[in-house]
Every structure is written in C-alpha cells, then in structure tokens.
Amino acid sequence: MAPRTKKLINQPATILSDMLEGFAAAYPDIVRLTDTGLIVRAQPKATGKVGLVIGNGSGHEPAMIGLVGQGLFDVNIPGEIFAAPGPGRILEGIKAADRGAGVLVCVSHHAGDLMNAEMALELCGMEGIEAVEMVVLYDDISSAPKGREAERRGTAGLFFTWKMLGAFAETDATLAQCKAMAEKIRDNTRTLSVAITPGTNPVSGAVMFQLPDDEIEVGMGVHGEIGQGRQKLVSADQTIDIMLPPVLEDLPFRAGDEVLVFLNNSGSMTQMELFILYRRVAQRLQEAGIQVYKTYIGPYATTQEMAGFALSLCRVDDELKTLWDAPAIGANVRIVQP
After folding, report:
1. Which residues participate in catalysis according to the annotation?
2. Would you say domain 12-187 falls under CATH 3.30.70.120?
C-alpha cells in the first residue's frame, strides 16, 4: 500500500504552529494561543474554581484543543504530532490554569502521557505548588481484561469525563471532589473501537498500519495500537452486534440502566454511516432494557483520515445527567442542552 501524502499543509516542521495559529484565529471569543503555545480560555473562569488541565499529542483534533472553553478545560498543552508534551510544558499549563482553588491534571492513560504528568507533579513539589492533583483515565476494554481496568488505554469514551467534569469544575466543588467525580465517570464508562482503513502520519506521510481492504481491526487504539484482532468486513448491523455485547458485559450494563451513548468518528467516516450504526445500537439497547438518556455523534478523538469509529457507553444517575445537560462551549464542541 503506497503512502497517502495528499495533505494541504505548508511545511512538516510548522504543522503544529500553523494549526494552532489558525485555530486560535478562528475562535478568538473562546480560546487564546499563548506565546508559548498553550491553548487557554479566552475568558478565564471565576477565581476560586478548580482549574482543569490536559496535555496530549496533536493530530487527534478536535481533541483536545476543541475541548477548551466554558464548562470544559481551562488549558490544553498541545504536544508534537502523536507525542505527549514534556513535564516542563505541563508545569506551565498548571500555572496558567490556577484560579486559586487548585488544579486537576487529567491524563488519558498512555505511557508517555502518564510519565510526563508524573514528572510535572514532581516539578510542582519542587516549586512548592501543593494544590495540584492528577487523575488517570481509561475506558478501552480491548487493551486489558476485566479486573485490570487501570491498565487500559484512554480513548474516545473519555469525552464523557471531559464534558461532565468540566461542568462540575464550574461549581464550588473542591479539588478532591473534582478528582472523585472524574473517577466516578471513568468507572461507569466503557469503549470499544473499530478501524476500517488506516490514517497517515501528517509529518512523514507514512501509512500508520496495514489493513487489507476486506478486514477490520476490532479494538484498535487511537495511535494504531493492536486491539482484539482482525475480522472480515461485515455490514453495519453485524459490526454493532460484534461490538456492543462485550461493552455491555464489561461493566456490566444491566436492564434498567440509563446511559449516554457516544459514536466517535475516527476521522473519515460519513454521517450516513454513523447514523446507520447508531440505528442498530438503539435497537440493541432497547432489546436489553437499557434506556438511552442522550446521544452524541461526531468527531472527538480522530487519527487524521483513519476510517473507523468508537462506541462508548456511560451509565448515568441524576447527578451525572445534570452535569451532561450543563452548557459547554468549546471551539469545535458546542453542547448546549435544552
């Protein structure tokens, strides 16, 4: 398979800076690009609120630059393409997010992200910054078996945490309460993904992995990490029938539960395909006696033009439903529930 290099960029070396400049210029009412390359809220939240920070490798937009704004993150620290930002940059982001009530560093569980976040907290200790905590989040059932949840990767289902935690941090919640809320949402979320075609690295132009035209990879991670294995390409209904049962069994989700459903577009899926897929999800959940509270369909964690999607469920109670319905305005993610 030849590399697919058709991308409208300037120079590979300036991909990140060009993107961030264009992004900030497009949404000046929501975000601001600092001189050192942080994406911060254009209007900081009120003094006395817990600050929320996340760092991540670029190339997965709108994650995470699009999740900065009202009811979402205070600061995003963009790393290079598919590479976590260093601890010094995370320290800078922590300082930028501080509104006087402490800062929660949110980590999507990948080795580099976790290591650099831990080192950043060590730097905080050396500088006497005490009101900072870290929460490690994960959701991908394909990356470790039940009972070893803490070894799992963070994938698209973390969108639930970012949205509801962001709403919670707009209240008078303490730093400890915000961390506990993030863990509550994490522990009620499960995700399984499917890749249909690979993406390409925007710097090198190289195809990220090989996948025959008649096969899919079930459980693939956002960087092309191997999942549960390859299967023959089948219909939309059959694909959901493969994916949904292990997601339901893992928590487990039971009859009578209320859930949020998220179908994440991995990059180049069409809206037509996603709605056809969701049709089957809705049918199967109804048959299982599980009620859908709200649904979100669209791109969040993408891998360039990779075709595929992630299916995520989050079990909710009245508290979480209230947080989901709270207004949230990010540059690429605007959720204002009626």
Report:
1. 60, 223
2. no
